[in-house]
Backbone:
């Protein structure tokens, strides 16, 4: 066990700490620093369910949360009093622990315990806070005196990435205070406007754009109900987390930094936590029926949080807000696996779906040495087992905490006392050490990940859904209509009869679009070849020969126009095809891929080796001019 006492020792240790190894607990070995931070090439992107680096090699997020810059104040009492901060730990509006240990020592500790990345929370208030941090808040790092919280955050980012760690920026709260309850931080726009929130994200993304090891933007933490209203996933109002995250994600990629991963956490809580009233923790369940399609494919990561004291229908509260619903720790191992898979892990487990993406468990944790509860300990062991079983990306909460005489909050993996003495998981008295070592050392997918087919959905439910950079750069091609366009490199393969949903893919195609040939907006039957009436009695929006569908527009429920683009010379479109009817039932072939892109509605879909080249609808009495058929042609 290594202990460190005194400021002069800390100063010396800051220079040599990378060479220090902790003594492992019995039955547990400290992860090697070599394994903790391996060579990798930025930027990161995704291939199916995997995160990969610029060389196409799997980069598993073995992360931890270094909290504090989003605030530790409980919301009542004095911000200057430690007792009025969560667990008595006052971060001073900056990452916790900089008053007790040199930054180099803290970061070296991260490497020792085997992580390769850090989720770094911040608040919107912190970004604009011009009040310098107190000298006490940076007592162990005097070079930071006189700096604002954001300037300290800058140095933390710089030093983390200089040590080889990847950094994920996390907008944790609007105001600088402890999360998460009814606290004015329930939604991204709880204490500020959506526009101001978006502008803050652009500021942060641009601020670190030149640091290639800043790899992700974790858009907002634990979106949940306030006193009066629930967040939602797709209703199109000011509480629509799906729409808000889709919009700001696209803005970050197109206006700030195209290299960042865009990380979207599911909805943390809806409903009133009273027995007999509806209440639940949706997490990522809504993604199954409505998933994001960013303007740049390969940048979306979903995330979720799990703790033993919460549950699928339990807030985690004791007393006020507590219900009789089971907590996660109350579930049997089999029940826990079923719930976890339903709420989050299905997103990675089910391949070739519109929602398939990496899932990062960006918060999980448990009490440490003083946690004696059998159910709490069993939950942690079982949860770690599931992370290993599913080869999941993860981030422990929290990395840094305080201790006095080896007691305190206890949740952190690394603790420092006021004299600078460090307490770590491998000191011999932390029951979590064996499970943590098992998790960090688990052998999962590694090395090269080959490119995979991309499937994505279009959902112009409440406005334009243009996932194409090329079309975004061009003038409005159907003014007043809601427009939907597939990402560049993909083509439209499926449509729903009602609901305006579309399915895009790059399957079996290669480079499909010849940008030099432009596009055609089709609003009538002028391009239907003579003698090729593929939907008699129906209006047919037919692409010119050599073109295929990449988008469409609607007015209300009715089709307005088809967007056609010319095929690349290497992927010519045939001239004859077949009609796929879906006005009275699904017609998607024997083994359709892409998943259910319009849940509860009839859908039509071309085969993987076909192009959609026409949309048919009718204006007869009783019809709403919604899509009834697709014209599917093969490559010539």
Residues:
């Amino acid at each position: 066990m290594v202990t460190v006492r005194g400021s002069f020792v800390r100063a010396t240790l800051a220079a040599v700490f990378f060479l220090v190894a902790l003594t492992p607990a019995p039955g547990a070995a400290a992860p090697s620093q070599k394994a903790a931070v391996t060579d990798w090439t930025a930027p990161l992107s995704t291939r199916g369910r995997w995160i990969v680096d610029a060389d196409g090699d799997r980069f598993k997020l073995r992360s931890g949360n270094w909290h504090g810059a989003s605030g530790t104040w409980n919301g009542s009492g004095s911000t200057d009093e430690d007792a009025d901060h969560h667990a008595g730990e006052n971060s001073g509006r900056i990452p916790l622990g900089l008053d007790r240990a040199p930054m180099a020592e803290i970061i070296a500790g991260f490497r020792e315990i085997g992580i390769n990345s850090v989720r770094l929370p911040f608040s919107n208030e912190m970004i604009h806070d011009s009040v310098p941090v107190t000298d006490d808040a940076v007592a162990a790092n005097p070079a930071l005196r006189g700096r604002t919280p954001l300037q300290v955050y800058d140095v933390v980012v710089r030093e983390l990435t200089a040590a080889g760690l990847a950094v994920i920026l996390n907008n944790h709260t609007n105001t600088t205070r402890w999360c998460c309850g009814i606290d004015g931080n329930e939604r991204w726009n709880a204490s500020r406007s959506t526009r101001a929130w978006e502008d803050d994200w652009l500021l942060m993304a641009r601020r670190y754009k030149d640091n290639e090891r800043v790899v992700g933007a974790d858009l907002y933490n634990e979106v949940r109900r306030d006193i009066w209203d629930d967040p939602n996933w797709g209703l199109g109002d000011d509480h629509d987390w799906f729409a808000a995250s889709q919009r700001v994600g696209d803005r970050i990629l197109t206006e700030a930094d195209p290299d960042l991963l865009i990380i979207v956490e599911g909805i943390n809580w809806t409903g009133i936590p009273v027995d007999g009233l509806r209440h639940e923790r949706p997490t990522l369940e809504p993604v199954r029926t409505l998933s994001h399609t960013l303007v740049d494919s390969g940048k979306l990561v979903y995330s979720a949080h799990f703790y033993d004291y919460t549950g699928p229908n339990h807030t985690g509260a004791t007393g006020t807000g507590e219900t009789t619903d089971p907590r996660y720790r109350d579930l049997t191992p089999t029940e826990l696996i079923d719930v976890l898979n339903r709420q989050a892990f299905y997103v990675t487990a089910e391949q070739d779906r519109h929602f398939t993406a990496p899932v990062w468990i960006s918060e999980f944790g448990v009490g440490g040495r003083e946690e004696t509860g059998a159910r709490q300990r069993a939950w942690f062991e079982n949860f770690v087992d599931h992370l290993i079983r599913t080869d999941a990306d993860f981030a422990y909460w929290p990395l840094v905490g305080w201790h006095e005489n080896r007691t305190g909050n206890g949740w952190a993996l690394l603790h420092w006392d006021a004299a600078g003495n460090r307490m770590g998981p491998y000191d011999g008295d932390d029951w979590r050490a064996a499970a943590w070592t098992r998790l960090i050392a688990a052998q999962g997918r590694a090395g090269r990940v080959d490119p995979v087919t991309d499937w994505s959905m279009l959902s112009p439910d409440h406005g334009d859904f243009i996932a194409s950079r090329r079309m975004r750069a061009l003038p409005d091609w159907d003014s007043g209509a809601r427009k939907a366009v597939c990402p560049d490199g993909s083509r439209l393969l499926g449509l729903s009869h009602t609901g305006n949903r579309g399915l895009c893919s790059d399957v079996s195609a290669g480079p499909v679009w010849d940008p030099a040939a432009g596009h055609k907006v089709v609003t009538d039957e002028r391009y239907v070849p003579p003698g090729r009436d593929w939907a008699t009695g129906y209006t047919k929006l037919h692409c010119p020969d050599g073109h295929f569908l990449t988008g469409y527009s609607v007015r209300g429920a009715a089709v307005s126009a088809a967007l056609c683009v010319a095929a690349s010379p290497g992927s010519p479109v045939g001239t004859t095809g077949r009609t796929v009817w879906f006005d009275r039932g699904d017609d998607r072939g024997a083994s359709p891929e892409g998943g259910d892109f319009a849940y509860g509605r009839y859908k039509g879909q071309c085969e993987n080796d076909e192009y959609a080249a026409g949309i048919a609808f009718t204006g007869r009495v009783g019809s709403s001019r919604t899509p009834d058929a697709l014209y599917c042609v093969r490559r010539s």
